[in-house]
Amino acid sequence: MVNEERMRKTFTDLVKIYAPSKGEREVCDYLKKELKKLGASRIVEDNDGSINGGNSGNLIATFNGNAEGLPSIALTGHMDCVECCRNIEPVLKDGVFRSKGNTILGGDDKAGVTAILEGLHLMKETYIPHGKITVIFTVQEEIGLFGSRNIEKEYIQDIDFGYTLDADGPAGSVFNAGPSEYTLDFICHGVAAHAGMCPEKGTSAIAMAGLAIAACPNGRIDEETTCNLGTIEGGTAVNIVPDRCAVHGEARSRSTEKLEKVVSQMENAFRKAADKFPEGSLEIKKEKAYDAFLVKESDPALRLFKGACSAAGFPVKVAPSGGGSDANWFGTKGFPSVLVGVGMTDFHTNKENLKEKDLYDAGELVYRIIEAESHFGK
Ligand SMILES: [Zn+2]
């Protein structure tokens, strides 16, 4: 059903464009042209074309519905890639796309973007009845979901539900829940002193941090809760009692209660340690990175997805995700979205690969989602 040659061309064209987070300009312009050719009724770039110091806004295109009473859906992907993504040379061999080995492949998320474009091509070519479709290509997903976090609400107001094509697993894989996340900075302040001459005049910020870290919860807490202290920096020289040590971490859970609990345990570990150093002090910075999302199996987004998969013959696999994605922010901003598998494998590494068949199936799936609308009703 899909035009395989067209998909191969779109995918390889897209990954060859250098598109790091904050540097999506060129890929955004490419996609604008494609969406125009596909007949979008409105194409906008939000936030006046720049978010968080980047050179592009989110690209949002609407396709008017051609039938009454059908749901208004969103199809979303992100335009940016993690580094190394300059001069990607995709190679298709034995049915698998890979890079030449010195870069990522960029299937995260150009596989999703390609699948959306192909679904729209098929929609146009087959004249199927459909509701309003909003295509959202976000920026800066990879560095903290800044695109979806800052998306302008006026463009997404009337969306009933959405599909974020940005996950691993073949067509039919879907993630219906994701965690909330806090990022945490613990900054231990001590007092500097010469370590050989007068260490008693000093207070070691590193000793304070060490005590705290030893008492801090770490790793998997339960099936839906994790936490991690990921980086640490402190001290200036071996002969100086360190007056500063900063520890950066995160905690995630699909349960708000459990998240609050593990975060307060982490904070308490640091507070207790700081209490043992009366000359020192502690600073804690805590920020909600994104909220949890949950789309129930009985919700329209998943019911329609299952209908689309059964029409295409793709087995459905519903699972919770442990990571954050644009779907988290779309839920917060007003429409529920599930995270859809497009086959990307070993992403964020130079070994990243994508089965040719998974790419075609993802395109087929997007078309089937649009097609399923008319059997679904609102
Ligand atoms: Zn991604």
TrEMBL record:
GO terms for MF = aminopeptidase activity; metal ion binding
> Binding positions for Zn(2+) 2?
D108
State the taxonomy lineage. Bacteria, Bacillati, Bacillota, Negativicutes, Veillonellales
Q: Which cofactor does it need?
A: a divalent metal cation; Zn(2+)
Q: Which residues form the Peptidase M20 dimerisation domain?
A: 186-276
Give the organism the record lists: Dialister succinatiphilus YIT 11850
Alphabetized UniProt keyword annotations: Hydrolase, Metal-binding, Zinc
Cofactor: record remark: Binds 2 divalent metal cations per subunit.
Q: Where does Zn(2+) 1 bind?
A: D108
Question: What name has this protein been given in UniProt?
Answer: Peptidase T-like protein
* Entry-linked Pfam families: M20_dimer, Peptidase_M20
- Please give the family membership noted in the entry: Belongs to the peptidase M42 family.
Report if keyword Zinc is assigned: yes
